[in-house]
Amino acid sequence: MDQTLLLGVGALLTLALVTGIVTLVKTGQARRLKERVSVAGALESQAALQSGLPSIRLQTNETQPLVQRFLRLLRFNPDLPQEQVIPWWLTILLGVIAGALGGYYIGFLIGRSMSVPLGIVLGFFAIRGLFGWQHQRYVESMFVQIPDAIGMMVRAIRAGLPVGEAMRSVAAEMTAPLREEFARMLGDVAVGRPVDQALMRLYKRTELPEFSFLAVTLGLQSQTGGNLAETLENLADIVRKRVALAKRAKALAAEARMQAGILMVLPYIAALAMSQIQDFYIENFFYNPTGQKLLMVGLGFSVFGYLVIRWMIKRAGSD
């Protein structure tokens, strides 16, 4: 009973810690923005008095690096709230529940002394997995839209429109989620940030290298000149081939993922069939303490093997 209470207290502390950190970031963004604006306004006013010239340049000092690193480790990006299909508080709650249940049942195998730290580790990876799944889903849906967006920019530039208007056409006519990201990038450009730097900020938010390609292309073209429409058309062709290659790799990996799922489910199908033939073989896994431990070991190895296979498939596809 004491160990169960200790496990519950550990789960609640973990929930409080993660929720507090995420809430601090979510609720502190507006406050930090006001502070930066006020500080920058005071500094610019002082500089204007000394030089006699007005300025609208703002300082953007980064704050709370440890919190940002922890959120990055969780795969939670506060700059992309639209990627969260599941609310962040529900994601944390599900992770804590998974950690508490996992730690409670692991205590049967290795003792209650290790159930709390292992439950915290399981909860952490569950939260990270949910946040990572939502981020990957958001990024993949954006990735397939990039060739069409660059093609739209090429057509607009060939029609005689400047780069800024071509990007506005993308923000107005493309579908979500690329439309919102381009609109946010154009907001950065509207306050005085160069186009290439605004695209690099978009690359840092989404971690899609195609945005860095576009940023480098526009930056070099602004410095060296040349036919921008032709350069963007070549870039669109390269990105389109990358998208097609990624889809082909995903299709080829579907067979391996299916095999991994079959390998995970097959022992339990065999156990179900055995329970229909000889009941007492399976009853020992549910009513005998030793059988319960063996059942948990088997379940743990099955999940671990499935995750390792998926990790190997993902690494092979990324290479």
TrEMBL record:
Source organism of this protein record: Roseomonas nitratireducens
Membrane-spanning residues: 6-25, 85-108, 114-133, 256-274, 294-313
Subcellular location: Cell membrane
Membrane found in the keyword field: yes
Lineage of the species this protein comes from: Bacteria, Pseudomonadati, Pseudomonadota, Alphaproteobacteria, Acetobacterales
Any Pfam family matching the protein: T2SSF
Membrane topology: Multi-pass membrane protein
Keywords: Cell membrane, Membrane, Transmembrane, Transmembrane helix
Superkingdom classification of source: Bacteria
Chief location: membrane
Ranges of residues in domain Type II secretion system protein GspF: 152-274
Gene3D superfamilies to which the protein is assigned, alphabetical: Type II secretion system (T2SS), domain F
Name by which UniProt lists this protein: Type II secretion system F family protein
